[in-house]
Amino acid sequence: MSTRPTLTREDWIQAAQRMLIKGGIDTVRIDNLAKELNITRGSFYYHFKSREDLLQSLLINWRARATENIIQQLGSSPYSPSERLQQLLSLPFRGNAAREAAAFEIGIRGWARRDPLARQAMDEVDSHRLRYIESVLKQMGYKDQQAHDTASLIYAYQLSISIVQPNLPTAERFEQHQRIIQQWLNVPTD
Hints:
Blueprint lengths: L8 H15 L6 H8 L3 H7 L3 H25 L5 H10 L4 H18 L3 H24 L4 H17 L9 H16 L5
Helix pairs in contact: 1-4, 1-6, 4-7, 5-7, 5-9, 6-7, 7-8
């Protein structure tokens, strides 16, 4: 007689993430998740009070994995500010994990277009990411306004790199990416 593995809260969050990526927020329903995980709804209620609790947890998990953890890793690295920016900008080219993260980001942003909870989380993440990029640019010698404006440009580029020309060969996209960021890494003079 086989026993089913015990699901964790993280298992439910990961299943919700996969469902969001595949079908949008409307498919992230308790019944759909239970069917996907081949388990009863009771397991869900052991970990979450409600669907809203799961959705909040999904947003918290996204912020931690896609923002907080990355900034913390870069901040504790021995890299120079320029190297930290290069590391950050190389994230979209890091294989399957990068593609999954981009798909999750797109799912969150689609959800945020019509849900205040997701919109608030997205706005907070965007602000945090922009402040981080701006702080790195200032460490590189950019003046306040230049750092602010360049951070906005870099962030817009960072968000779009995974969805613009996705069918170009990765090597070609990465070469172009390298040329673009090299331009940003040259500290502008007044």
